[in-house]
Write a structure and sequence with these properties.
This protein is mostly helical. The protein has one domain: MetI-like fold (Orthogonal Bundle). The chain has helices at about 5-25, 60-95, 95-110, 115-125, 130-155, 160-165, 170-210, 220-225, 235-260. Helix 2 (about 60-95) packs parallel to helix 5, helix 5 (about 130-155) packs antiparallel against helix 7 and helix 8 (about 220-225) runs antiparallel to helix 9. The longest helix has about 35 residues, at about 170-210.
Length: about 260
């Protein structure tokens, strides 16, 4: 098996394991998310396979709900960043020189800000919620996607077959649909896959700081924050969301790396 196939296979397996667990959680949860009858910081065993948190809630239930938030954030942020980024990149690629230069400067300024910092500023201004976090991460992602799209579009437009198509009278919309998007699509999709992993980490970081999805919805980042005070007496409460976060991000990155290779 080649290294590319190995990376792709391992990555897809990890992502599918997390996705499968999340999908099953929509059909069945071990306990109600707000059920606090398990006792404070109960150890793993019995009805509570991973134990309970400091409020007596089932950790496995919280972990599964946090998986919903993580995957939802990844998909939502990629959708926002992909649509806005590709649209802005296409605009810059076809724009006149002065407009292209203006867009390039704006993108460079946005990219200069760390993704998490930009997301924190937007979330702090609009209020903490899952929707705001997804929008903020997506907007930060859009600048990176737009810059990549702009470069790729200019490369495609310089090809001889584009010149031949224009000489033949093919319209620009048809050229975009038939030549530009199919040629830049694979590279953009791989980049979006990598950005999905960063989106999961960004949402966890925002939730850890209290700027992500608000209670009572669970988030892996907030679970880590709540568990830090009892990490020595109840380590599972911190290890479970941490391991889940690592598995999902590594799975996404390995999948993207396999596709890129």
């Amino acid at each position: 098996m080649s290294r590319r196939s190995l990376h792709l296979g391992i990555g897809l397996t990890l992502v599918l394991v997390v996705t499968g667990a999340v999908l099953v959680s929509y059909l069945h949860l071990p306990f109600s998310p707000d059920d606090t009858s398990g006792g404070r910081l109960a150890p793993p065993g019995g009805d509570h396979l991973l134990g309970t948190d400091k409020l007596g809630r089932d950790l496995l239930t919280q972990l599964l709900i946090g998986g919903r938030v993580a995957l939802g954030t990844a998909l939502g942020a990629v959708a926002v960043g992909g649509v806005l980024g590709v649209s802005a990149g296409l605009l810059a690629g076809f724009a006149t020189r002065w407009l292209d230069d203006t867009v390039a400067v704006v993108l460079d300024i946005l990219i200069a800000f760390p993704t998490l910092l930009l997301a924190m500023l937007l979330v702090a201004g609009a209020g903490a919620s899952l929707g705001t976090a997804i929008l903020a991460i997506g907007l930060a992602m859009a600048a990176i996607v737009a810059r990549l799209t702009r470069v790729l579009v200019k490369q495609v437009l310089s090809r001889d077959y584009i010149t031949a198509a224009r000489v033949a009278g093919v319209s620009w919309p048809r050229i975009v649909a038939s030549h530009v998007l199919p040629n830049i699509g694979p590279v953009v999709l791989v980049n979006l896959a990598l950005q999905a992993g960063l989106a999961v980490l960004a949402e966890a970081s925002l939730s850890y700081l209290g700027l992500g999805t608000p209670p009572p919805n669970a988030s892996w980042g907030r679970m880590l924050f709540e568990a830090q005070a009892s990490v020595l007496t109840a380590p599972v409460a911190a290890l479970a969301p941490g391991i889940a976060l690592v598995i999902l991000v590594i799975g996404i990155n390995l999948t993207a790396d396999g596709l890129r290779r």
